[in-house]
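Worked problem 6 (solution included).
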Amino acid sequence: MTDTASKRARFRALHQSGCFVIPNPWDVGSARLLQHLGFQALASTSSGHAWTTGRPDYAVSRDEELAHLTKLCAATDLPVNADYQYGFAVEPEDVAANVRLAVNTGVAGLSIEDQTPGGRGDLHALPFAVERIRAARAAIDKLVAFADAGADCLYAPGVKKKADIAAMVRAVAPKPVNVLVWGPGLSVAELADLGVRRISVGGTLARVAWSAMLAAAEKMQGGSFDGLAGAVPGKQMNGIFAGFGG
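Solution. The predicted structure is:
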């Protein structure tokens, strides 16, 4: 496996120019599959991970998330950006402490939301949200190896209109911008033309996988196995994962 310092250096370089897609695996298998397909970096998804445990988003504890990130980083040669929710804390000093723990998992970067705990969509007041981010940044800068390869990227989910995306890119230039894509619409080329540097999909890939299983299971419950027709052959899946060894 590629060492952590090399992953972080590559992740930083990806943000210097151009545009790249950073898909969101929800477990080791999906991470390795995305590496096999040729993506350059990965990002975790809090919702996708929570669903694999049979719980809703924001129901996973900090320690569970840290264990999950450790497994993802160890399973792939690609740099991993952590969906670190709200930092699993409210006060800036507690966010900083939790960020230091996340860095130790081997992630190449992480995101901190300005949401309050619980995932209800309530946001901290702007001055306090900024204070939390400053504390997180300071915690990262104390870890020299990570600071040298730390890429700052601004992330705004839910922005869909070209004019809004272009305005956001201009407003924070030269900092790179990540756009979260939740469904069909703008292409990678169109987003790149708007100046977007990074594109993620959050829990959407996980939702696609769950949708396929749900549809097939509902047909089985109704007495039909037609929903199994589109399954990827086991031989193909085994061939993909055989290349990763243990």
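Discussion: DSSP finds eleven helices and seven strands in the chain.
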